[in-house]
Amino acid sequence: MGELLLGALALMLIFEGLLPFLSPGIWRDVFERATRMSDGQIRFVGLSSMVIGLLLLAVWR
């Protein structure tokens, strides 16, 4: 279980690093827009991300 969790963390870090590496200007614009979002909007994005992740995990399993 620990190896699977470590692998998942490694993949998350790889995907998180792709946009800043490939296109730092777009990443900066996205980050600036995110700082202007309300708390409710940020929570919705987080909830959506978690639901999509859970659905992908269910399909994978």
Low-confidence stretches: none
Question: What is the rounded Rg?
Answer: 14 Å
> Helical residue percent?
over 70%
> What fraction of residues sit in β-strands?
under 5%
Distance between the termini: 14 Å
By DSSP (H or I, 4+ residues per run), the number of helices equals 3
Question: Please, could you describe this protein's structure?
Answer:
The chain has 61 residues and is an all-alpha fold. It has one domain (2-60). It has 3 helices and no strands.
How would you concisely characterize the structure shown here?
This protein has 61 residues and is mostly helical.
Write the layout of secondary structure elements.
Layout: H1 2-22, H2 24-35, H3 39-60
Helix pairs in contact: 1-2
Defining traits:
mainly alpha; about 60 residues
